[in-house]
Design goal:
Distance between the termini: 25 Å
Structural class: alpha+beta
CATH superfamily of the largest domain: D-amino Acid Aminotransferase, subunit A, domain 2
Strand content: 25-35%
Largest sheet: 9 strands, mixed
Number of strands: 15
Radius of gyration: 19 Å
Number of domains: 2
CATH class of the largest domain: Alpha Beta
Order of helices and strands: EEHEEHHEEHEHEEEEHEHEEEH
CATH architecture of the largest domain: Alpha-Beta Barrel
CATH topology of the largest domain: D-amino Acid Aminotransferase, Chain A, domain 2
Helix content: 25-40%
Length: 288
């Protein structure tokens, strides 16, 4: 089952989708994106995703030529044109600076490009939740906030790609990055949590990380369930000494981590807090 792509309102299958080679998203990596998914056929946390998309646009001085309702209609049309065969939808929304001359001058690109990719959602295998995954603390340092601010969900993913590739070469499922001060930030494609003494801890945004939507929802879900949830600066030893650890993202929800750099976390099995949070998140999302 292939993807359906909407490029500036033109919907086609993935083979016929085209964008100009002079698009600044291609030649300069100037653009932003959001990844969403459906539960029960409905987009989850759409307003939260749009809030973050608009903040990313503001941080790179990118005008968005659509309303939230207008974009929702475009996503809906693209989903309707996709053969999902009863599965949930994976949705990726990309907005670039647009097509223009090869210059950094904003006047060259008055109209942004909008691309929507929809394909059947492929959930992670159940055994990953049952057994947990291995992650690697990598040498790649997370972007400094005064270079490419991690608050921007940028199409330019070289920082994360290099980190993830280093992890893959060592047989790990994900990479964990530190900031320039040596503090833990996040994974290459997910946020990071640890559990210590029954409290779930995650690095604060000030450490230089993306404000994840699943991270945000889980902080709420945990507090509603009576679990102490707290932002706290974390270091390597906090992760190695954790009772539990897990990563969070739109496509993985809350996925347990059981090994870091060949060192076992806690009992070496997914922990009770991670399981409770995963169930609470799925209940919130409408997945039974």
């Amino acid at each position: 089952m292939g993807a359906t792509v909407n490029v500036d309102g033109r919907i086609s299958d993935e083979r016929d989708a085209v964008i100009s080679v002079f698009d600044h998203g291609f030649v300069y990596g100037e653009g932003i994106y959001e990844t969403l998914r459906t539960y029960g056929g409905r987009l989850f946390a759409y307003k939260r995703h749009m809030r973050r998309l608009r903040n990313s646009a503001r941080l790179i001085d990118l005008g968005l030529g659509f309303t939230d309702d207008g974009l929702a209609a475009q996503i809906g049309a693209t989903i309707s044109a996709t053969n999902l065969e009863g599965l949930e939808a994976y949705v990726r929304v990309l907005v670039t600076r647009g097509v223009g001359e090869l210059t950094y001058n904003l006047k060259a690109t008055p109209k942004p490009s909008l691309v929507i990719i929809v394909k059947p959602f492929a959930a992670p295998p159940a055994e990953l939740y049952e057994n947990g995954v291995k992650v690697l603390l990598v040498d790649v340092v997370r972007n400094h906030p005064q270079s490419v601010n991690p608050m921007i969900k940028s199409n330019n993913l070289l920082n994360q790609a290099l980190a993830a590739q280093q992890a893959f070469k060592r047989g790990a499922f994900e990479a964990v990055l530190r900031n320039y001060r040596g503090e833990l930030t996040e994974c290459a494609t997910a946020n990071l949590f640890i559990v210590k003494g029954g409290t779930a801890l995650t690095p604060p945004l000030e450490c230089g990380l993306l404000p994840g939507i699943t991270r945000e929802v889980l902080l709420e879900v945990g507090r509603e369930a009576g679990i102490e949830m707290r932002e706290q600066v974390l270091h390597d030893d906090d992760l190695f000494g954790a009772d539990e650890a897990f990563l969070t993202s739109t496509t993985r929800e809350a996925l347990p981590i059981v090994t870091v750099n060949e060192r076992t976390i806690g009992s070496g099995k997914p922990g009770a807090i991670a399981r409770r949070l995963l169930q609470g998140f799925r209940d919130r999302a409408g997945m039974r």
